[in-house]
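Researcher: First entry.
Model:
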Amino acid sequence: MWVLGAWVLLSAAGAGSAQLLFRPTTFVEKNICNESVLLPCIVTNLQANNKKVMYVQWKIQGKLFFSFDGTQQAVRDPLFSSAKLVSESDLSKGDASILLDKEQAILGNYSCEVTESNREGETIVALKNSTVVSCDEENISTPEEKCGSWFLPVESACIIVLLFLAIIFCWAQLSVIASKIETALQKRISIIVACGIFTVVAVVGVIFFVPGGYTPGSQAGLGLIVVPTVILMPLQYFLFGMVLDSLSKTAYALISLESLGYIIAVTGFALCVSVCPVLHASVVIAGLAIMAIGALLSLVYVCIVGSRIRDHQPPRKAVEEPLNDAKGVMLERCVTKEKN
């Protein structure tokens, strides 16, 4: 009996040694921030530690798409041409993980089979769509994928609303000046053209920015939203110049406030385009909020100053009548001299 028991124990030990064990990884998440996807496969009980006696197979839903023999070249399915081992040198240490380009990494269950001499094992890794940041609609490949945005919806809405508030306040200032103060037509046209260009650029930026996704288009859209707001500072200077003979301390303070907001917004933009998911959206929002507040206070200031100027302007008739009288007197003198 003891011989039979010993044989059973030895068989169990032999069977256990023939089974490769893996570091547990149940799933991997894919999102719009990924340029590539890492599928982990780490063997924890190699014995030979020699890649020449190892064989690796990767399958998706049971279909082989990548294999690597330690003594030969890797074999890839054309649909997964980007598949490669993370490090061939680390394969002898048990690392059979692979990298896939984001476009080729389809969602599903991936299996990694590793063989070392006469020992083998298999582990399964599920590739899922990220629950935090997801792909844009154009890249959805399965119904399970959800569409998300580079920014959170609330953050995107705040950026767009604050931008257009600053634009509206700028146009409102121009309307107040045009209705209360007489200015040269050329100046008005210049201001209108500048405001119009800024508005068009902002609309184009929003069109690129709204679809979401960490894409060059969205980054360019955010740039068109933030960077061209620099035009608000010289625009504000000229608007004040149409109302005041010389800029007051209040006017300079309001322009400085908008300049501060612009610096903060551009800093936030630089921080945002370099990271995904976005970590510094609040900096962009804070900068645009300061600029919008500055534009609002400037509108109030223009209304107050414009009203004072209008109240102190003499009526047009009161100015025209003395001029007409003076012209009449001069005309009479000229007629008298001709008669004499």
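Researcher: Second entry.
Model:
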Amino acid sequence: MMVAEQRLRSVNFWSGVAVLFLTIVGVLVGIYQLNQVLTDERQVPLAKLSVQGELQYTSSEAVRQALTTEPMGSFFTANVNELRRRVEQLPWVQKVSIRKVWPNKLSVYVTEHQPVAIWNGDRLINQHSQVFRANLEQVDAVLPQLFGPEDAVGETWSEFSRVQQMLEVNGFQVRALRLTERFAVNIVLEKGIEIKLGREATLERIKRFIDLFPVIQEHEKSKNNEIDTVDLRYDTGAAVAWRKAKSES
């Protein structure tokens, strides 16, 4: 009797072990199969792509191509940070927001650089004083030319904004501004007049130019000359250089 009971207990024990083992194996197989499905682009693909944003220089097609140059992964495995990086490589793209929308959609919102000036002849400055490289020929607007040290973009744009604001009120437009390594300021007006402002009291010197301009203009007319340069790097007054007026054909 005792032997039979021991055998029965042994059979029950090993049966339980076998059932537990098979259960664990079944769970592991199920997890593996589920993982295979979730990571398989064919099973859970990112089938839809929505591109949004006020796009002027970047096409939706260019965004799509940037995203799909390499496999994107499935809905569950797609790396949003990596996908964002791909789109941010496009020249006009400033910022990208990407999110997954269940069950199979990728929503992309693109913010473009808004060019406000040309920087050192071959790049652009955006509305946040950030320098970026893009095709200058795509810009329809006439942008001011800014020149300055590479580590002084913000200072150059700030100086331009201050000077332009004061001159614009008085009917002048700044076509170009140069900030030297010593932070001296030279500007060129729309009419080709160069104004040397130096390093200090630039706004006071701009005001002096505005006050003196009618007098300078009268001399320009009487002598049949054109204003070339106005040097305001003095405590008072200004030095004016002239060029011969172009003869009318």
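Model: Note on the second entry: The first strand starts at residue 48 and ends at 52.
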